[in-house]
Amino acid sequence: MNAPHIIAPAPEVPDTLARILADKYEEVRERAAATPFSEIERQARSAPKPRDFIAALCHAVGEGRVGLIAEIKRASPSGGLIRDPFDPKALAEAYCEGGATCLSILTDAPWFQGSPEHLKAARAACALPVLRKDFMVHPWQVHEARAMGADCILLIMAALTDDQAEELEDIARSLDMAVLAEVHDRAELDRAMGLETRLIGVNNRNLRTLQTDLATAEELVPLIPADRIPVAESGIRTPEDVRRMAAAGARCLLVGEHLMRQPDVAKAAHELVHAL
Length: 276
What we know:
single chain; alpha/beta; TIM Barrel; eight-stranded parallel β-barrel; 12 helices
């Protein structure tokens, strides 16, 4: 298969996201030049079988627990350096001990100090399914995600056109990976409904201001059809926040910065998992 061209960025993106995407397109060009598409595709096809991300979340919710996607990240644009020292292997083991359902691993380097090696180390340390948390803009990255062991990818609707999102989802599905489609407002939610994925993430973080407001999920989650699985993201810190999201209809949560700032991440994860 010939390497596809680099797709142009989606127009009208928020300022912070636009800067991140500019860096991402340049990074993808460099990485794709270093590892040709045929090679990354071969690596993806020969990677170990994906773990079932959606089934894990459904099982947790079915047992009355929170479907917690616990995130591993060293830094963020809004929070700066979050955890140092930073040991993805130890964090993955702690999350597993704390009852997390899945992991989310940041692999973006410029803005989150992430790395594919963080994902590989975390996935090897436990049996939990793993989401590659990054800014996916090109088919090459989807194959790279599978090659590094990711079981699920994130598609940020604010960063993609409908055609881009559909193309990247199709590739992920061809590799037996799950897709988490992330939205921030009603328009993005409507667009996400055009995808096949059942996982719809509602990010409480405003990409323009980087501020969080749980009211975003309270507004959007009830609009998500019953055949989809809502995932509330960002700004969730306490058992009360968990119950607030569950009351809105989201019993699956993605929590990162709060957990990363705790001295005992296993205990912190356990508190959220058993908040209902």
